[in-house]
């Protein structure tokens, strides 16, 4: 069995990556034999959907598949065959990161039927979404982030399965706040959150991984 964590952060050792790694540990705690892999989207030169519609051509050779030939194509093919996928993205300007959006376009669009009936057979693997952000839980609701996350998840649900989710707020952004102009943040408070709340977030990510593994067995 194969499971993927998709890292939509350009950073490979920070909050999003750590949470994703924990979720993969959660999978392996249930399925020790399972193969798990984190894909760092910012390591791969790729673009989003180029709107060629080859995936929608009547009697087309590539119907229901992304025809876009690039370094990402073989990786995408593997991900679409996975037994479970966990997506992780920081919030950038009130949305997912650019590369996560590019990924979702390529991951979802070939399977989105432009028809009132199902036209593409594909794997409906269990999914989870982990979002990290600077703002507090209250601010994220006020700013409509949850509505945005719901929107992405409802598209994913329509194509694959209903994702589990984890919202991680007030993340620790810099290793050393004193080196950056960042007086709108209270470093002490962030450090406290890092020590007290982030370990709980990691635990939740681990549980999400366990759930994905269990769902993959059904
Ligand atoms: C370009 C950029 C834009 C950002 N925009 C937002 C934002 O709109 N809302 C927010 O809450 N955090 C925002 N952040 C903060 C990140 O979402 C947050 O620090 C996140 O946890 C980073 O994840 P990472 O440490 O795994 O890279 C932004 C960060 C960057 C670099």
UniProtKB/TrEMBL annotation:
Residues 1-115 form the NADPH-dependent FMN reductase-like domain. The lineage of its organism: Archaea, Methanobacteriati, Methanobacteriota, Methanomada group, Methanobacteria. InterPro entries: Flavoprotein-like_sf, FMN_Rdtase-like_dom, ISF_SsuE-like. This is Multimeric flavodoxin WrbA. One of its GO terms (molecular function) is oxidoreductase activity. Keywords: Flavoprotein, FMN. It comes from Methanobrevibacter millerae. Its cofactor is [4Fe-4S] cluster; FMN. Belongs to the SsuE family. Isf subfamily. It holds the Pfam family FMN_red.
């Amino acid at each position: 069995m194969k499971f993927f964590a998709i890292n939509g952060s350009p950073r490979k050792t920070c909050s999003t990556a750590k949470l994703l790694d924990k979720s993969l540990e959660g999978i392996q705690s249930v399925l020790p034999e399972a193969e798990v892999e984190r894909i760092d989207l910012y390591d791969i030169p790729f673009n989003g959907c180029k709107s060629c519609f080859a995936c929608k051509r009547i009697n087309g050779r590539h119907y229901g598949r992304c025809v876009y030939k690039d370094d990402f194509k073989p990786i995408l093919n593997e991900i679409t065959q996975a037994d479970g996928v966990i997506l992780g993205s920081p919030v950038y300007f009130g949305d997912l990161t650019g590369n996560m959006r590019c990924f979702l376009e390529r991951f979802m669009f070939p399977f989105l039927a432009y028809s009132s009936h199902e036209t593409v057979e594909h794997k409906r693997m269990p999914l989870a979404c982990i979002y990290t952000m600077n703002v507090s839980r209250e601010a994220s609701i006020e700013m409509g982030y949850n509505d945005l996350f719901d929107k992405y998840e409802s598209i994913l649900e329509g194509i694959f399965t209903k994702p589990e989710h984890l919202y991680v707020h007030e993340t620790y952004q810099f290793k050393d706040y004193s080196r950056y102009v960042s007086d709108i943040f209270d470093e002490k408070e962030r450090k406290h959150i890092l020590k007290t709340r982030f370990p709980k977030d990691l635990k939740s990510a681990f549980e999400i991984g366990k759930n994905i593994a269990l769902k993959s067995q059904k």
